[in-house]
Amino acid sequence: MERDQAPNGPFPGESRKYRSRKQKPCDLCRKRRICCIREAGSDRCALCKARGNTCTYLAPPPVRRRLPQESTRRRLSQSQNVISRVDQSFHHTLQYLGLSGDQDPYLLQHLSQHKLENAGHVVWACKKVNDNPEMPAQFTIFPDKHLDARPIYYPQNDIEEAAQLHKEKLINAYFETVHVSFPIVSRSEFDPQAASTLRLASMYALSHVFCPEAKSLDPWVFLNFLGRAIPLEARNASLDNIEAALLYSQRHTYVFRAPTMPGMMAEVGNLVGMAHDVGLNVDPTHWKISEAEKKRRKRLWWGIYMEDKWSALTLGRPSYLQDDQHNVPMLTTADFDDPRAADSTSPKENISETMFIAMADLSIILSDILSGFYTLRAVQMLKNMPSDEKDTCIFSFTNRLDQWDGTYSSLFHRNEDLFPDPTGTLQLSYYTLEIVLCRAVLRDKYDHPIRKRGEKMVLLVIELLRTLQISRLRAFWWAVSKVNFSIVGAFMFSMLVTSIEDWEIDSWMSRITTYLKLLKEHSINFDTTKLACIRLELLSKVDQLMEDGRSHRTDESNGGVPAPLESIGNASTENREQAQLGDGNVIYSVDDPFEFISLDPFGDSENLDWDALMGFL
């Protein structure tokens, strides 16, 4: 027996007085499941002394204690009635009643009583916002605490403390730079004292880079808070929270890598779900709400519509929004700030509003192109569609794009004296959408006449990048622009690999060289081009692209072997020096080849076991 191996014989009974309930057993005693007896003042227990071992204590088992009844009640009270760590302006939340839900809006419109109370507190209520019996619009009202939006693990609110010294400067920077490009917030109605912390944090996060006085602030204070708070606040959807989430989706990128911003599509889905919770997809024109709220609802809806459609395009994902599930009319300039406001008549405000409307109009065309050419079903249908029917469909889209260009292209050429000029994002988006249509058509037929249209758009993007003025840099920050530059570059590679004639191959090699050079040079001080620069560098390293592009043109001096990809920077001098638009105007000049950025966007993936990874998926 272990007790008989003690140095002084069996443990005396009186040694029990040295044991304590609070004393934890050492590792050796716990392993043998015997009592760990240690005399006062000794650094080893009796068993370790007998064995000549060092008495160790590494991983004690947890001690289970029953919580006192008062502590238990206090803890339950905290979880059920948690005090919010953000400012609360409302004690109840409104949720839109959908037509197919269990609370049938057609039934509720016949009820005489639309409110239930318990001990004087409203626990459920129904608010009717229109009197149309054919299309009822109603909201149910719940106490905030029933929605679990602010649980005990809600992130600590340190936003106001961090921005306290620069709050006014940050808000001014927001309206001077961010607002002119993305006029969601009403300047005449915004009250910083009444705004929620979530809303202010999203505004601070966007304006921080444009506010020199606040450069000492760490932007991750705002981004980390928003990243943790918005998913929780999604349970308690409100116009303020949706506005904050929409602005957060446009946040600046501080880490540039080969992958897209992680989780962005899931965030868009979260944003769309919040919009549906409050009924933003329904026309509020005849609702019994204030005119200011009607305008705000329309601005938010079309902002979310743009975010959903352009995210679906740039990330290659299905759109969350269905066109038969919304009927919000197109924006007008009257849906923005009150015309009587002091700043609303400035050229900056007028161009900003018109640009936002133009972007919404362009997004509708994008939605139709995605549905007609980029869904799984559409790809199969296009294969079996007769050529004349397909050409008719293509012509309808080119005609719509030409009409849009005729309506809004004047925005791109009248802003010489405007600082900042917010139209760069719109102009690039239009060129990108033209290219997206061309890319879909040229998937099956490389020699389609639309190829010339795509080539013209590429040259216009290069010209846009070459002549980019400093007045456009500050308001050229929409998240979609980062990927649009990359889409243009990828299309140029597609045109290269489908070229047959020698002159065409050399021409596209020259354009790619120029485009990459411009992206790299702008990337020094213009973050919008950094992602495209990384993406196109990756494409340029894929040898198969170049081999495909030169498969019709072999190098006789090399025994008929296609030239390597590195020759992209060695295009003929004549072709590299200039490229021309259809009217013969020289749009760029390059006198040296592009040098790629020295980085490894893939990380350590040289020895990646792809078979094992795919098996795991």
TrEMBL record:
Disordered as annotated region, ranges: 549-568
Name by which UniProt lists this protein: Fungal-specific transcription factor domain-containing protein
UniProt keyword Nucleus present: yes
Domain (Zn(2)-C6 fungal-type): residue spans on this chain: 25-55
Pfam families according to UniProt: Fungal_trans
Swiss-Prot/TrEMBL keywords: DNA-binding, Metal-binding, Nucleus, Transcription, Transcription regulation
SMART domains: Fungal_trans
